[in-house]
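ok here's Pyridine nucleotide-disulfide oxidoreductase, seq below lol
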Amino acid sequence: MNELYECIIVGGGFAGLQASIQLGRYQRNVLVIDSNYGRSTLCKTYRNILGWPNSISGQELRQLGRKHAEVYGVSFIQDKVISIQNVNNQFLIETETGKSYSAKTVLLATGLIDRIPQIKNLVDCLGSTIYVCPDCDGYEILNKSVLILGSGNIGANLAITLAYWSKQITYINHDGHDLDSKLHDQLQKIGVHYRKETIKEVLKEDDSTFKGICLHSGEIIYGDRAFIGFGGNKVQNSLAIQLGVNLLNNKHVIVDSRTKETNVTNVWAAGDLVAHSQQVTIAMGDGTQAAVWIQKRLLEMSVKES
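and the structure came out like this:
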């Protein structure tokens, strides 16, 4: 027989970690199953989180979160969940390595995966001097020259958004998808330089300092910082779909705004899997909110079982 956990959290990013800390403080028997891959593993410098004015990397924050949760007895395994079934009002979870686990409640915190083209040195600079989120890192390009590496309308809209922070923006439409004429006109109006050419490699200094790009034509375009805007990000919702969880048209999971519970009883969701502004601090808040209501449900269960 598998050990029956009171809650299994799928995903060890910031929503999952924060939830595990809260549930650990409730002295609940909690397991976090994490594949150790996602946005939080890529970002090297979060600069907009309370208490870290000099920045903290995603990996360091994850490590601190795990150590914090382990103080309260939370268990962690590195694996990938491939199946969840509701069997006799308990959740049977199967993993990629062939392990199985059972839980009374489940929190899905599987997030999303950004589409990152195979451009040499791009990942090395990502999260340090190449950014994804204008709300998180727009400040970092203040009065700097900026290259937008993107695709079609997605990259154009990102360039327009970032024009708030910098007047020195060049948008390289790497995938070559056509722009809407209105967007093209708007780029010209606000002074964004537009190039429709493929990128051969990112130029860097040291390990992660962006210096510019080299086009396939051999031309070099220099810049102080860069953003990527390729679109096609994948919401990691396959487990939610297996369970019959309702989704929005954009593939994000629908949750109760107060409790973070999905339409499937005893299944919660938090973080970037849910539709929100994709901020670390909001993901943390989601995790705490979900954990509070998971605790309430577990208390109800214990009353019924007694």
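fwiw The chain has a mean pLDDT of 95. kinda neat tbh
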